[in-house]
Design a protein that fits this description.
It is built from seven helices and ten strands. With 243 residues, it is of the alpha/beta class. Helix 1 crosses helix 2. Bound molecules: fructose -6-phosphate (F6R).
Length: 243
Amino acid sequence: MILHKFKNQSDLDRAAADLIISMVRSKPNAILGMATGGTPVGLYKEIVKTYQAGLVSFAHAKTFNLDEYVGLPVTHKESYRNFMQTNLFDHIDIQAGNTHVPDGNAADVDAECRLYDKMMFEQGPVDLQLLGIGGNGHIGFNEPDEHLSRGTYKVTLKQETREANKRFFNHIDEVPTHAVTMGMGTIMQARAILLVVKGAEKAEILDRTLNGPITTQLPASLLQTHPRVIVMTDCDVNYKVSF
Ligand code: F6R
């Protein structure tokens, strides 16, 4: 892993956006793995600005999102499909059919998970996977556990994850209890990974991700085994390869 530290979040957003933009400039039909949540909002804004300035096109790019809540209509403002439309897809020239978010309302969720993996296998691998990290070390919605899933699956969200995400809802009871998420194997197949970590409150989990033991109890620690991970952060952490 390579660690890039930034003094502020706006520099971090710009650098993260620039990495994604360079990928698409050098490979117009790149496959991008996308994340939602608070972390990528600023970097998506920077991508939109660059697109609006005519400096990048997503006309041939494809995207696969990490996850989606189970049971929220796609029109719900907090569905991850809606998040992607309002924060990014509606503002760039990506073709609708080239954007993929797991269907959290599929009648047969297991079949939907297998279909998502099949599509990713046939069209992939992902060239650049964007990740945030949960306060408990989850990536996608792969929650800490005794064992992790290889492929896309339906996960029961941990209470701490629902608590962390209640800020986007009116009440904790409205936060879905389940989600569909790419599994760890699916994530680790990406050619390169960009992990963005923002806020002093995530410094400790980032330190454990970079420097601690590799354990299923901290899913992000498995990234230590991936050959091409870039971490961008404004946290005060140390790592052997940092600048
Ligand atoms: C979102 C995702 C999650 C978030 C994580 C951090 O698609 O997969 O792993 O990246 O929960 O969320 P924020 O950015 O809201 O702190």
